[in-house]
Design brief:
98 residues
Length: 98
Amino acid sequence: DMPVVITILNSYSGWALCAEGFLLGNALLAQIGALIGFSGAILTWIMCEAMGRDVVSVILGGAGTDAPAATGESGAQFEGEVKIATVDNVGETLAEAN
């Protein structure tokens, strides 16, 4: 979700530049700000569509929730076998793969 939040902030900075252009009476600042703001909004929408999420759910997704407590145990159960590899073992395995 953070890349989408960054594109939203990029869009907001463009709209702020657009408002500054209007306040200062500078048409170039207003036009460039609108271009940056609109392109950031389009990029945000495209990224949310690609993730299959709504923009509102991305922005307000963690609002009002408590952070999970950090404990020593994660509660995750791992299955399978752990194999320890060294550089020599990996080199031999890659050589034998040919």
